[in-house]
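User: I'm preparing a small set of examples for a lab meeting where we compare how different chains pack in three dimensions. I only have the primary sequence for this one, and I'd like the structure in token form so I can line it up with the others. Please keep the answer compact; I'll paste it straight into my notes.
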Amino acid sequence: MDNGYAYMWEFHVPADSQREFERHYGADGAWVQLFRRAPGFIGTLLLKDRSVAGRYITIDRWRSEASYLAFRAEFSQQYSRLDEECENVTTSEHPLGTFTE
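Assistant: Understood. Below is the structure token output for the 101-residue chain.
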């Protein structure tokens, strides 16, 4: 039985790219618009670090890992295009892990 699935990423974003980053990764951003096309997507939370300039954390939530994997299989081309489009707004990105709720 799945109890929900979430994954977290850490991003470092230069000051001159923060507005664009927030537009892509925010609550109604390009990533969320893509995720919403798949059943099982619950939501995304974008957190901006108050102590470290340009540091962000995203938390993407799905009903199950299976629903996330189905999304990745069905939307792999769109995911890759959007990932490539967003490459230039960050200086680094790192996965922080996957979690069960």
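A couple of notes for your slides: The CA atoms of residues 7 and 25 lie 14 Å apart. Helices lie at 18-25, 30-35, 65-74, 76-86.

User: Perfect, thanks.
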